[in-house]
Every structure is written in structure tokens, then in C-alpha cells.
Design a protein that fits this description.
Number of strands: 49
Radius of gyration: 42 Å
Strand content: over 45%
Number of domains: 5
Helix content: under 10%
Oligomer: single chain
Shape: elongated
Largest sheet: 8 strands, mixed
Amino acid sequence: MADRWIATQFAIQCSNGKSYELVAVSQTGDPLGEWYRYAFEFDHFNDYPKFGVWPDGYYSSYHMFQGGFIGAGFASFDREAMLVGDPDAQMVYFGQYENIFGVLPADVDGPKPPEGAPNYFMTLIDHDIKLYEFKVDWDTTENSSFELVSSLTPEPYSSDVSRIPQPGTNNKLDNLAGMLMYRLQYRNFGDYEVLLTNHTVSTSNKAAVRWYELRKENGDWYIYQQGTYAPDDEHRWMGSISMNGNGDIALGYSVSSSEVYPAIRATGRDPEAPLGEMSFEEITLYPGFGSQGSMSRWGDYSAMSVDPSDDSTFWFTTEYMNNSGWGTRILSFNFEPPAFPTVTAGQYDTICWDFIYQTSGQATSQQSVEWTTSGDGHFNNTKSLTAQYIRGWDDIGNGEVWLTLTVFGYEPGMIASDSMLLKINRYAECFAGNDTLICKNTNLLLNATANYYSSVVWTTSGDGSFEDSTSLSTIYTPGPNDILNESVELSLSAFSFEPCDETVTDELIVTLDPCTGINEINNNNISIEIVPNPTNGIFTYLISSNDNSKVEISIINQQGQILFNQKLPYNSDMYKNQIDMTNFAKGTYFLRVKSGKNIAIEKIVLK
């Protein structure tokens, strides 16, 4: 009515012994802007507040406690003063009414009520509908009144409702049967006025929603129509009902059974439907994903509202079970012909192989959704737009996987799907090379390998230099200290592709041998014979050693790299064996023999 928002919350049993109703009124239609704030004082704990907007006030009902329940309380707050931020805005309060419980104030949708109309409060007492009028005189508040004006008897019902079962648990949920469920909606059609409300009843050993439409036509209020919605054996409770400007009625509620997780559903009727019947097919607004095991209270508060921008679209808020526990779901719908669903699986994305991926699907006009994968991973919940995907080993091997989100509309054949590519990066791997030996006055040609890397870098423990420290294949020139120390450690670090943040490092030890150039080194304690030499690739070596030590043989190229290495067990006689070098490139190589501290080198010519 004023293009404003209100927010309320109680503050109870404060240090001064008082309790308060905190009420904030937005200064504009922007809820992110500034607000006027009020604290209205009570002598008792003002529990279970229910609010309604009326032209002359914000009206609320309470269950008042002082140790135990001491009665119902009813308040009106000066709306006109609060809309302009008047610090002296008043409250008119009536209480405590010991025999009244579960009362709702009327809340306006659409056109305003007639000028000077009181706000209406409604409750159930002994299965009868009790209607009260709250009249406020803000000029002389003592003239205000709260009084019973009507008692209406609905069709018989039972409020003896068992707790609501859930799958997979013995924990059952409270139904709050017997109390009217928020809101008590008021609507003025000119020729008549309407009040709508609902509560939970028992029928055929299950919870069901009993709903009422009261009308006032130039006289007293009467029950225009009523119905009990129980289309099957599942339990329906925690309802809320509203009527839009077209006269369509929407009824939302929770559904559960021993086979069905607590879910959010709705039904409705058009103005031409038979009285007391819901003519629209029940729809699942949001499915349940689990049972509530920690407590019996469920929801307590739900609300079916009408969007004031078009006076047609319904908004429903209530509890549901998400992947981690309970949450509040906010949904909108209307009774126009169902729209074809739309879907977006999300932008292409990349994860590290040991990450769990959080999907971000979006959809409209969907009754249900389902995720599928082209790989061997799995979703923690295929029916949720925001499921988690745990990749499989094939996904990792392929480096990517397609995730597809399919949405199903409200009529057969209304199906849409979209896919997103999820790339999967591994941590980098690298191999710097085998430990090697070079002559002191030569450079070392490095030929490292690496996988799944974004970049690499070489570092040295010595004072030599790399021709290109960021290349797998590069040349290392030993420095003076390297030569003096006769060895140096070279390290290759490989960096993973984002979002992987792992860096791996591998090292190799380079020994700088006193050999020079390509001259053979002869040692009287070691004799080497190579037959044939030159060779086409296969030759036999004959080695004898006077040093009573194990013998180690190596084949070295001209750059000083060790291409073959073998340690021979101690033998006091001749060492003889055959070596095959047919896969080596043609050129000159060296057969180096070490026995104890003695070294001998013989040139091999491979033709």
C-alpha cells in the first residue's frame, strides 16, 4: 500500500526484565536503503508473533509467557507515524486472554478495505471459527477496542493428528494441528470482502489441509466455501493460502510420508471451480532430499503471498531439506499455462584432479532436474541444481568430462538440457634425468621430461649457468666452484596448471670427472680390450684388473653423459661380456672402467 517493507523480531527477557517487539520500516521501496527502527515494550515474553498490514496500523498477535503460557496478546502499531519515522509512534495492546490461542491478524492484498474498517483477528476455539474486531483510535487510544463479533461452525473435523513420518528414520515431525496457519489474507472485491486461512486436520489416519474462504457481503461474515485437501495417502501440513486479483487461490504446504522425503508442493483453484474443490493439479515446487533427524519441529512458519506488482504471481516461503540440513526455500509460480523450461548448466570450468566440483546450474519453469555425466564420476545429489561432482579415474585420464543438466517441465515433453565441459588438471610431474658424469672442461646437455606442467625452471646448487633455465632441453656450463668441488646438484621444478597449486622438483647429481677431451685414460692396473672396434653395434669387452675391488663399467658420450652403467661382482680373473649398441647414434663413445681408485677409459667407434 505504501511501497515499503517491514521487518520484525522479538527481543526477549532483556536485562531490564522487559521484552520487546522490534519493528523496522523501510524509508523507501528499496529494502537495501535506510530504515526507521522501533522497539515496543512488553512486560512478558511476546512469543510466536504474527503480523498483518492494515491501513491504520501494523497488527500482531502473540502467545504471552511468564514462566508458562499466560494468554494471548494483540497489538496495533501506529503505521502512519512509523512511515514517516515519528519517534513517538504508539502501540495499542490488549491482553492477556487465557483461553485464546493461535490467533492470526488480517493482512491486506490488493485494494484497501472500506474506510474505517477494523482489523480482523481469527482463531479456532472448540472447533468453531472465532472472529474478532480490533478497532484503534490513535487520537484517544483509550477508546480502542478488541471484541468477538462472530462465531462460525465449519464442517466437522478432527485435530487429533499423529506426527508426520519420514523415510529412513523413526523421528517424526510436529504438525501444529488445531492452530490456524499464517496468513489470514484479506481481499476487498468491492461487492464483497474475503478472508482466507487454513489449518491441519486428520483424515483417514493422515494429515491434511483444511482451508476456508469467508465472505462479507453487506452484513456479517459467513463461510462461503471450505475444503479438505487430501488427494492420496501422503501427509500434507504446514499450509498457507492466498487469493490473487483474478480470484485464483493458491494453497502451498509440506508433504511427507514413510516413502517421501519432506517436500514443498502446491495446488490451487480458479474462480469457476466447484466450491470446496482445488481444480489445479498438484505440483512439486521443490522435492525433498532427506529426513530431519535432529528435532521434531518443522517449519512453524510458511507464507503464501501475492506479488503486488502484478496481483497475480504467488510467492511461497517454507522449510525444506537441503544437502546439509534444513533451509528456507523461496518460490514463485502462477496459474498461467506452463512455460517451457530453460536451463543453463554453467560456464566451462577447470578443477584440480583432487577437487570436488560444485555445480552452479540454473533453471526456470522446472518441476524437477537431473545431472548426468559422460564420465565415471558421480554426483552427491543428481536432483539438485547445486550438486557436487566427484570425478572418476577415467575423468582424470581423459583430462575432461561433460556434465549435463536436464530439466523437466510441468507437462509431458517439456524437457530441456544443457552441458558444460569440466576440465581436470593433474599435478605436474618431472624427471630431471639420471645422475651423470662429464669431463671438467665440458658443458652438459640436459634433456629432461615433464608432464601436466605450465612452466619449468632449472636451478643449481653451484655457480654454473643454464643457457635457458626455463626449457626442458638446455645446456649447463659448470662454474669454477662446480669444477673445484667436482660435483653439482641440478634441480628441475615443474609448476602445475591452475587451479592446481602443486610444484614438484626433481634433482640430478653431476660428477665432474678429471678426464679431458676425448683422450683415453690408461691405467696399468686395468686393461681393456674391445672386439671388434670399430663396431657395427655389438661388441665384446675383456677387462682385467689388478685391484682387488668390484668393477663398474660405463658407456659415456662425447658430452660426458652416462648412457649405460653396470656394476660387476668381484672376480679375480677376467671380466667378459657383450654389449649391444645398435640403437645408438653413429659416433664416438667411451667405455670407462672403475676399480677402486683406478680408472681406465677406452674409445669405442660406432660405425
